[in-house]
């Protein structure tokens, strides 16, 4: 059975870049790696409905904190069999966002802290009721919210298809979400957390996560 790792962080933190560099490092070590990004846009009707709602469609759906959380949770519920199959055939399965993302954003939208009712509701819904696999390690990419916002805006300017959604444009929400993420990591919510910054060495991190010796850098910055 493979290891399940998750990368978390606010929009624009650089999760996709870190995920690609970790995969490159592990593959250079001969490991078999699978990767999934949540929400699974263009693969999951729940994810697509959520994305459409955050861009102004489907009436007042985006205004309902719990409706949006349910759509994101249902996307993961439908991926349970896929995740378990990938774990049985790979050394590492790496997820870009997972349950903690839903917990952090839901709590932030409700202006709750990490020990509030929203976080517990998400934990019980996704892990207990839906039975999504528990991560072995959750990685928080802790990047200043202002820097993350700049990156998200630059990404939008460079790619017309990457229009920022309502969450990404809300700086206050991103700040509150970052605070909840930090508290979840400090409490080792659900499973152990590993906090890294934007200048993390992906080779060293990859070696630490899989308990392999760290050699010469193998990943192009």
TrEMBL record:
Pfam families: Thymidylate_kin. It catalyses: dTMP + ATP = dTDP + ADP. Residues 7-165 form the Thymidylate kinase-like domain. It is an enzyme of class 2 (transferase). GO terms for molecular function: dTMP kinase activity. Keywords: ATP-binding, Kinase, Nucleotide biosynthesis, Nucleotide-binding, Transferase. The keyword rRNA processing does not apply. Phosphorylation of dTMP to form dTDP in both de novo and salvage pathways of dTTP synthesis. Belongs to the thymidylate kinase family. This is Thymidylate kinase.
């Amino acid at each position: 059975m493979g290891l399940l790792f998750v990368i978390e962080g606010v929009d624009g933190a650089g999760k996709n870049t870190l995920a690609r560099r970790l995969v490159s490092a592990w593959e250079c070590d001969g490991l078999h790696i699978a990767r999934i990004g949540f929400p699974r846009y263009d693969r999951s009707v729940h994810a697509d409905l959520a994305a459409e709602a955050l861009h102004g469609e489907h009436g007042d759906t985006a205004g309902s904190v719990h409706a949006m959380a349910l759509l994101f949770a249902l996307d993961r519920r439908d991926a349970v069999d896929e995740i378990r199959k990938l774990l049985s055939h790979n050394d590492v399965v790496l997820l870009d966002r997972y349950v903690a993302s839903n917990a952090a954003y839901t709590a932030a939208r409700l202006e709750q802290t990490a020990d509030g009712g929203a976080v517990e509701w998400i934990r019980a819904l996704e892990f207990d009721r839906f039975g999504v696999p528990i991560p072995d390690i959750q990685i928080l990419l802790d990047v200043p919210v202002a820097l993350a916002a700049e990156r998200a805006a630059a990404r939008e300017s460079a790619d017309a298809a990457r229009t920022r959604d309502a969450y990404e444009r809300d700086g206050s929400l991103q700040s509150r979400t970052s605070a909840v993420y930090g508290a979840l990591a400090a409490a080792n919510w659900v499973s152990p957390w590993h906090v890294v910054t934007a200048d993390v060495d992906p080779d060293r991190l990859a070696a630490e996560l899989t308990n392999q010796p760290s050699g010469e850098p193998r990943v192009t910055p």
